Structure prediction request, 516 residues.
Amino acid sequence: MIAVKNLYKKFDKNMVLSAVSTQVEKGEKVVIIGPSGSGKSTLLRCMNLLEEPTYGEVWVDDQLLTPVDPYLHFDIISLSNTYKKLVASGVSPDEAIVQIKQGDLLKRFEGFEYAAAIKKVRKENGIDINLARRKIGMVFQHFNLFNNKTVIDNMTLAPVLLKLKSKEEAEELAYSLLKRIGLEDKAKVYPSTLSGGQKQRIAIVRALTMTPDYMLFDEPTSALDPEMVGEVLELMKELAESGMTMVIVTHEMGFAREVGTRVVFMADGKIAEEGTPEKIFGDPQSPRLKEFLSKIL
Amino acid sequence: MGYIWQGFGNTLVMTLAAVAIGLVLGFVVAVVKIAALNNKWMKIPAFVCNVYTTVIRGTPVALQLFLMVFAILAFPGFKASAAIITFGINSGAYVSENIRAGILSVDKGQMEAGRSLGIPWTQTMVRIIFPQAIKNVIPAIGNEMIALLKDTSIIGMVGATVGTLTFDLNAASGQIALGLGGAYLAPSLIAGCFYLVVVYAIVLVIKIIEGRLRKSDRR
Prediction:
């Protein structure tokens, strides 16, 4: 399960995500849609911490990826100097917490007790980001195959380097994956000689060589020529049918409707509406979503 | 002519040693500066590196040479080494910027792809980023080597040459000219030819290296 809790992301002064909370259960296929600039890619990239959220926490399988966000822990807030001061000045404890949360009053240093509490939460739940990323595959809009490596090296690099598989095991798996997508004859070539569709399909199976539990897709078909979109979506569909947990940012509404188990509509850095594809596409509630759908369909 | 050959040898040795120092120094400085972009522990070393490149690139190499040879490293019999170190440090500042630019020229997605597979930053750098960056850096490094080769000709200014017979190419031509009663033109032209030959050799080597490295770009 990937749990995103109260995520905020600021780029300079620009608030890209504000108060985004959602959960992705095992086996779900969550499709994130929305107008450009609505924060969908940022939300996805926060899920494996390629983007570090300004506030909020990301949990994967009950392990904490991000730093501890004190605003999400009442017990930690109540250890802070600010809270103690407020209570001492006659504010009720509940009111103090509300004030602190709304006013963003916590400072960098809030006393040793507070610092120790944060450390403790981090120690008990935190996971090294490199370990967490092993179980979260990611596919990018621009494929990002390693240009200096052949296709087979692209696929075996991570599992061999991280000592998860022997070179032989990794190559065996890589070849069987290449065979599955019908590109085993491309094993020894460099990415620059491949078409966009081939690159993206290889990028997908490259992520699979790590045998991840989750797959994140960041607009996987947006940079492709139209005639190549189909082959990539087909592979993703296969992957979905095999039971993979997927989070997909896409503009392919047909695909969203067909494969998604849940559709999340984002607008202005917030989740504006979410539900089953039938509900989102058939019976949209919010005016933003209605407007978006009328433009796109 | 004996002077010229001796000077030629000394110039080559000096340049090669300085290039080696410059490359190592430049590489380290570049990596520290890049690492500081997303690692707060590197901020202070990066600041030091910034001061280094700013000061070195902001002052004339002749001044640096005087300071090093006559003040900072003014040990007896250490003149030639001090000069080599100076040129190395000077070259390092320029090389570091070349290497930094080379690393930054590699698409950000390459690092992201490596990291998203769980490969740590350092490993991604070594396996993915450096091999691609080096292709973009080689021409600039060649440029820097050529500039350095000719920069070493100012070593005559601190007199690392006279008396001990450790001429560099330029100083040697001057010495010959003295012997000829001040006819500078011919010896200088000969020295110039030597420089030209070496520069051309560097250009050729760079070309060969570049060709090899570009193999993976297009089959």
